[in-house]
Amino acid sequence: MDRREFIKIAGISSIFGLGGLTAFGTLKGKLEASQTGPSQNPQALKAKRWALVIDTTKFKTEEDFKRCIDACHKAHNVPHITDNIKHEIKWMWTDTYEHVFPGVEDEYLAEKVKEMPMLVLCNHCDNPACVRVCPTKATFKRKSDGIVMMDMHRCIGCRFCMAACPYGARSFNYKDPRPYMKEEDMNPEFPTRMKGVVEKCTFCYERLAKGLMPACVEASNGALIFGDLEDPNSEVRKILSERHSYRRRPELGTRPSVYYLF
Amino acid sequence: MLEKAIQGSSRYWVWILFLLSLIGAGVIAYIYQFQNGLGVTGMSRDVSWGLYIGQFTFLVGVAASGVMVVLPYYLHHYKKFARLTILGEFLAIAAVIMCMLFIFVDMGQPLRVLNVLLHPTPNSVMFYDMCVLAGYLILNLIVGWTVLGAERKDVPPPKWVKPVIYLSIAWAPSIHTVTAFLYAGLPGRHFWLSAIMAARFLASAFAGGPALLILLCLIVRKYTKFDPGKEAIQAIGKIVTYCMLINVFFLGLEFFTAFYSGIPGHMHSFIYLYAGLHGHSQLVPVMWISSILAVIAIFLLIFPQFRKNEGLLAVACASTFLSLWIDKGFGLVIGGFVPNPMERITEYWPTFPETVISIAVWAVGFLVLTILYKIAVSVKEEVVFDKYGEKQIQG
Amino acid sequence: MYNGGKIIIGLIIFVGLIALPFVFSGKGASAKPEPKLDTPEILKLPETERKCVESKEYMKREHMKLLNEWRDWVVRDGLTIYTSSSGKQYTMSLQNTCMKCHSNKTKFCDECHNYTAVKPYCWDCHIKPKEKEL
User: Fold this and answer.
1) For the CA atoms of B213, B219, B224, B228, what is the dihedral angle to 10 degrees?
2) Which of A178, A204, B28, C84 is 20 to 30 Å from B321 at the Cα level?
3) Per the domain annotation, does C134 fall within a domain?
4) Partner-chain contact C76 A151, CB within 8 Å
């Protein structure tokens, strides 16, 4: 064996040696993972695709809307920006029928129908345009349950998602939101946001993980129904199979997970 | 070659200092924006992109348009453009740098800009846009610098640079196509959701960019001993003419589809921009200025006897450039956001800090352009005179 | 020396620039940081249970990596429970787990962060615990 050959063999065997080591390493890592590391809370509410059904007939007074919106905004420390309406942050809000369902305009439509307030929020689309355009995966659809999430740690504030969302569901922090919150009103268990990131409804992922229903659903007195769209026995599926429902702008192919009952 | 940039007349230094002072003002305005957030701009929840992204879009076009002088020279051996290619390439470099700066100042969290590389997302057009822009910058730097360096030494450019040039020619339309895809793939934004968007972008780019190049050539000829060539300028003039006509034709197609189909969502933005919608008409005068400028430009360009007069050609090019700058750098972006998805109207107008920052970015672009052109012209002044033996106009 | 004067002036400026960080950091340097662990919440615990989610040495060295992993697991993967190497389970949350014990952000976090001049942006969003005046 000459020097050259020796080096060759030594090189090859060391590659195998290293390979073996890493293989052992991953195996070891996997074994350990079963004991330490992250896992889901056994009490967490689970679904294949979460959906929200809004029973518009049960929203009769302004108070009915306010209860849900306040519950949401309080739970998530959503600032109440009034000095410049252009910089508003909204996770859940109301608009009138003709604006929630644009394109239905009809001059003979009863004024009270046109002006009927409706609850609006992120639709948690099955085919979300915002997720498609995000350059950092800061907004993404959770594979486990279809929630369209926001990772505020990662958002670079390019606002492409706001241009892409056909529902106007996203808000951008044009300034530091903290001064718009009273300390005593803040939910100490949930963060606020910083300036320069986009935010929106997250279907209360933090509450679902603890086995709680979304804050708005809890506050709605049964006007909001939350459940698994892919479970044929779920309450949402039962209602959808019985009653007349609409989704916002279905022609765009985004497949919203928020339904409106009339 | 860089040493050429630090030897100049007092006029050169006054110009540099002027640009630096604009940049300084912009830096102060940017620090203010950085500390207070994008709330210091005119953007809002409904109009979430404004002047910055508009200028970015327009400048990608300017960058891509360099190909309009590079392509005829390298692919068709159109010798008249020999002296111009470097000006086209250097204009592209300055424009890409401005594009990148406009994206940067538009970011809500600029310190996280590297997240785009850290978490590459191939399904996002923004990710591709960043890749193609960076690629285009590098390609033009390599090509421009190498060819100019060879010219200075009076030797033919190295062989390896040819394929790089061909690649840059193919690359140019791609950067603007990808930029158009930022807009043209969004559901629910009818104004942008148009298959002709990329084509329209290219047509307007290949009119606006060369128009700027003509103006730059005229300036270079006036203030230096380097003459880019009368015939070359006339040839670009023809390019501007055709592309401007195609651009207006494409805009006409958009109008036809929107108004003949009569679909409200498709008409709304056009009505807002050109006539005002529900009493909101802030952008109407601006859009009409753009349209009038376009008419003036086309009128002057279309008749050869006007176009051949360099004074009128300059007017036509300035009109073309301004018209497209308004149409694409402003109207196109804002129009897409009005009305918003709930069919409500929020208007937009840039604020003072926003304007100062935008001017500063342009100043950075002009600074880069000035330095690069200074180098190119210094080299050309030494070399070109003998090589082509054409009479130079003494500055 | 050819152009000696200029070279020496240049060198002096160069050395001055290089030394700048030392000049500036000199002011900020404070006493050796001593993060405090004596919060009421920790003192309430029986001596045997006064343990962090992982060993002190590990936390000292790796807490930033651990927090990074936690946030990705919680926000991105929907996993909220962390089983430590001792087998104990914790809810992964900076605000609701870490700071429940370490309710003294200024004496615990800032002590070292200030000393090493790192400025994590945790508190731009996460609400810091209310600290009782000692």
Assistant:
1) 40
2) B28
3) no
4) yes
Nearest CA to B230 out of B64, B11, B388 is that of B388
The answer to whether residue C133 is domain-embedded is: no
Residues in chain B closer than 8 A to A88 (CB atoms): 45
Which amino acid appears at position B132 of this protein?
A: V
C83 touches chain A (CB under 8 A): yes
Euclidean distance between CA atoms B274 and B331, whole angstroms:
10
The set of chains that have 3 or more CB pairs under 8 A with C is A
CB contact under 8 A, A168 and B46: yes
* Segments forming the whole domain that contains residue C11: 1-30
Closest residue, chain A, to C97 (C-alpha): A189
> Is residue B37 within 8 Å of B108, Cβ to Cβ?
yes
Instruction: Classify residue B330 by its DSSP letter.
Output: I
Give Cα A128 to chain centroid, integer Å: 11
Q: Which residue has better confidence, C34 or A73?
A: A73
Task: Find, in chain B, the residue whose alpha carbon is nearest to that of A104.
Answer: B264
Number of structural domains in chain A: 2
Mean pLDDT over residues C37-63, rounded?
88
Is A45 inside any structural domain? no
The chains in contact with chain A, meaning 3 or more Cβ pairs closer than 8 Å, are B, C
Measured in angstroms, the CA of A110 and the nearest CA of chain C are apart by 45
Domain coverage including residue A245: 50-261
Mutation target to probe the A interface, by most A beta carbons within 10 A, among B186, B193, B267, B354 is B186
- Note the pLDDT of residue A9: 61
- Looking at the fold, whether C108 and C53 belong to one and the same domain comes out as yes
A66 has a chain B CB within 8 A of its CB: no
The pLDDT, as a whole number, for residue B389 is: 43
Structure tokens at C36: 């405090």
Chain C contact for A205 (CB, 8 A cutoff): yes
* Secondary element (H or E) of residue C74: none
**Residues of C whose CB is below 8 A from A35:** 83, 87
Residues in CB range of A73: below 8 A, 6 or more apart: A80, A91, A92
Helical axes B352-388 vs B125-152, angle rounded to 10° = 30
Q: Is A250 on the interface with B (CB under 8 A)?
A: no
Q: Where are the alpha helices (DSSP H) in B156-283?
A: 161-184, 197-223, 230-261, 264-274
Please work out, in degrees rounded to the nearest 5, the angle formed at the alpha carbon of residue B133 by the alpha carbons of B130 and B134.
85
CA-based nearest residue in chain A for residue B39: A174
- Same domain, yes or no, for C113 and C60? yes
**What residues 203-262 of chain B have any CB closer than 8 A to a CB of chain A?**
none
CB < 8 Å from A in window 7-36 of C: none
Residues A132-164 pLDDT 10s: 999 999 999 999 999 999 999 999 999 999 999
The answer as to whether C26 is a domain residue is yes
Residue A44 domain-assigned (yes or no): no
Parallel, antiparallel or unpaired: strands C81-83 and C89-91? antiparallel
Residues A10, A62, single domain; the answer is no
Same-domain status, C19 and C50:
no
- Arithmetic mean of pLDDT over chain B: 91
Are A102 and B342 a contacting pair at CB < 8 A? Answer: yes
A contact test, residue of B40, B121, B133, B189 with most A CBs within 10 A = B121
Tell me the residue type at A45. L
User: What percentage of chain A reaches a pLDDT higher than 70?
Assistant: 87
A112 in Cβ contact with A86 (< 8 Å)? no
Give the C-alpha separation, A42 to A48, whole Å: 16
Q: Could you give the domains of chain B?
A: 42-212+229-350 (1.20.1630.10)
Q: Do C19 and C52 have their domain in common?
A: no
Rounded-to-integer distance, Cα C21 and Cα C1, Å: 31
Write down the residue that tokens 């700048």 correspond to: C20
Per residue in C59-118, pLDDT (tens digit) is 999 999 999 999 999 999 989 999 988 888 999 999 999 998 899 888 899 988 988 889
